[in-house]
Design a protein that fits this description.
CATH class of the largest domain: Alpha Beta
Structural class: alpha/beta
Largest sheet: 7 strands, mixed
CATH superfamily of the largest domain: Medium-chain alcohol dehydrogenases, catalytic domain
Number of domains: 2
CATH topology of the largest domain: Quinone Oxidoreductase, Chain A, domain 1
CATH architecture of the largest domain: Alpha-Beta Complex
Shape: globular
Number of strands: 17
Length: 340
């Protein structure tokens, strides 16, 4: 079978691979749709941490089960599934504590091992989340929404609170859409007026702010009745933006970093203590988050229709990936596979 491998930064190559052999506890699945993630883009540009080349990318996957043994999850051949791409050690302290998303020996397919930019892969049965009424494209979006949703879960957002989400890339949009299902006041900030317009005009976000405006904090306070938000979620991965969150959260507030920075950040400790802030990292998502997001998409509480702005055929990735991710109106690209 023909697979697409990232040989080095900026260099995709089509390679020939044998059909994978299924082991006990695994399902053989056909990859139907692949979401292009910020992780893939960073890997392509050579700035993805914890990454080695060559690598077959692809961890946002909508798949069809081809072969599977009897199982307790009710999965069978023909089922449509989203893949939870975080392969963890069940015996690790984090996994035993219910945090399989940040297991000490976590293996994320498409990052730490080869992923889904190929027609067929094998997947542990317990990493498949069935949703037959969703399209494969919707299933490929589930994982990225889950990362944003997990950030909202980490924030412990309460009814009536105000949350500021900074960054409206796919992960930020996932957080935004999950926050929209909560009883909260949502404020969205970005430096891109085009992305803010998308949030206002397509997602119907009432409160948006230009993140690089000279009076940003004053504008933020004006939307918070003179105060600051109880929760600030940063999905930018930008050092300046992440460091600024310490001055944007209310006293007693919470900060969640979903975006990942290759490097260090610093903050003023007296300000941190004075406000008694809580700083949290958010990594990946848990199985429960997958179930919540799938249910929200199935019910229509989360609408995935506006997300997909570009499509590429799998075999065209070597020639079209770079031009696609460079499009100024890109929200989310989907790679479609040819099952023949």
């Amino acid at each position: 079978m023909k697979s697409i491998q990232l040989e080095s930064p900026g260099n995709f190559k089509t390679i020939e691979e044998p059909t994978p052999e299924r082991q006990a506890g695994e399902a053989l699945v056909r990859v139907q749709s692949i979401g292009v993630c910020g992780t893939d883009i960073h890997a392509y540009h050579g700035r993805q941490p914890f990454f080695e080349y060559p690598r077959i990318l692809g961890h946002e996957l909508g798949v069809e089960i081809l072969e599977i043994d009897d199982n307790d999850l009710g999965l069978q051949a023909g089922d449509h599934c989203s893949v939870e791409p975080y392969f963890n050690d069940k015996t690790s302290p984090a996994s035993r504590a219910g945090k399989s998303n940040c297991c000490e020996s976590l293996n994320v397919i498409g990052v730490h091992s080869d992923g889904g930019m190929r027609p067929l892969i094998t997947v542990p049965i317990n990493k498949l989340h069935k949703a037959n009424q969703l399209s494969y494209e919707q299933l490929a979006l589930i994982e990225t929404i889950c990362i944003g949703a997990h950030g909202i879960e980490r924030s412990q957002l309460k009814d009536g609170e105000t949350i500021l989400v900074i960054g409206t890339g796919p992960i930020g949009l996932g957080a935004i859409q999950f926050a929209m299902t909560q009883n909260c006041r949502l404020i969205v900030a970005d430096i891109s007026e085009e992305r803010l317009a998308f949030c206002r005009d397509v997602l119907n976000i009432e409160y948006t702010l230009k993140a690089d405006a000279p009076d940003f904090e004053d504008d933020l306070r004006a939307l918070c009745d003179g105060n600051l938000p109880q929760v600030v979620l940063d999905a930018t991965g930008n050092r300046f933006s992440m460091q600024r969150t310490f001055s944007l959260a209310a006293h007693g507030g919470r900060i969640v970093f979903v975006g990942l920075l290759m490097g260090e950040i610093s903050f003023d400790d007296p300000n941190f203590h004075k406000r008694e802030l809580t700083l949290m990292a958010s990594r990946n998502a848990t199985p429960d988050t997958f179930q919540k997001v799938i249910a929200a998409v199935e019910s229509g509480a989360i609408d995935t229709k506006p997300w997909i702005t570009h499509r590429i055929n799998l075999q065209d990735v070597p020639t079209q990936f770079e031009s696609t991710i460079a499009q100024p109106n890109l929200i989310k690209a989907i790679i479609e596979t040819d099952p023949k």
